[in-house]
Amino acid sequence: MPDHSIFIISGTNRPISNTLRIARIVERHYRQAGVQCGFFSLADLPLEIYSSDAYANKPAMFLEVQNQVLGAAGLHIVLPEYNGSFPGVLKHFIDMLKFPESLEHKPVAFVGLANGQWGGLRAVEQMQMVVGYRHAHVYPERIFVSRVHEQLNDNGELIDTKLDGRFSQQTRGFAEFAGLLRKK
């Protein structure tokens, strides 16, 4: 993956989730802006990643994803709120990444979502602490999608055009932010 790309992570292993749908919307906005991006859904993690042996001997498929994280100019994480926090599989994913260089000084943007009124605020704030500990640069313009089940139509497209405009603004701004930090 080229050094100027944004790597989007759909932060749950639930297949065909609203998180995946929102992450694909984020991807569409990058593509519309002409920004090169990669995409990974935690639903595609190999089962071997959950073995206690995986810390020392990472599965080949995971090494490919890790290299995409390492080579990306920035990470755009889309995460749901589960039980007042982010999914455990997302924390495991981060724990499995090469330390410290996977997140060290890496720009990271966030989109949180939930069926409740706060739109994943708690999950994003908690994840910000994790990536902050790893010395990532958090992009300040976050998006919180509340009542996500009401925001998407049957085709997984956003109903609210204002929210869609915010995604356009966030992706363009983050691409610029990541590019500026990359030049330092």
List keywords for this structure.
184 residues; 6 helices; 6 strands; six-stranded parallel β-sheet; globular; alpha/beta
What is the strand and helix layout of this fold?
Blueprint: E1 6-10, H1 18-32, E2 37-41, H2 60-71, E3 74-80, H3 88-96, E4 107-113, H4 121-133, E5 137-138, E6 143-145, H5 148-151, H6 161-183
Parallel strand pairs: 1-2, 1-3, 3-4, 4-5, 4-6
Can you walk through the features of this model?
The protein has helices at about 20-30, 60-70, 90-95, 120-135, 150, 160-184, and strands spanning about 5-10, 35-40, 75-80, 105-115, 135-140, 145. The protein is an alpha/beta fold. Strands 1, 2, 3, 4, 5 and 6 form a six-stranded parallel sheet that branches. Helix 1 links the parallel strand 1 and strand 2 (about 35-40). Helix 1 (about 20-30) crosses helix 6. The longest helix is centred in the last third of the chain and has 23 residues, at about 160-184. It starts with 5 loop residues before the first strand and ends with a helix.
Task: Extract low-pLDDT stretches.
Answer: none
Q: Rg to the nearest angstrom? A: 15 Å
Main pleated sheet: 6 strands, parallel
Work out the helicity level: 40-55%
Shape: globular
Task: Assign the structural class, choosing from mainly alpha, mainly beta, alpha/beta, alpha+beta, or little secondary structure.
Answer: alpha/beta
Average per-residue pLDDT, rounded, comes to 94
Secondary-structure element order, N to C: EHEHEHEHEEHH
| C-alpha termini separation | 20 Å
Query: How many beta-strand elements?
Result: 6
Number of helices: 6
Assess the beta-strand content as a share of residues.
15-25%
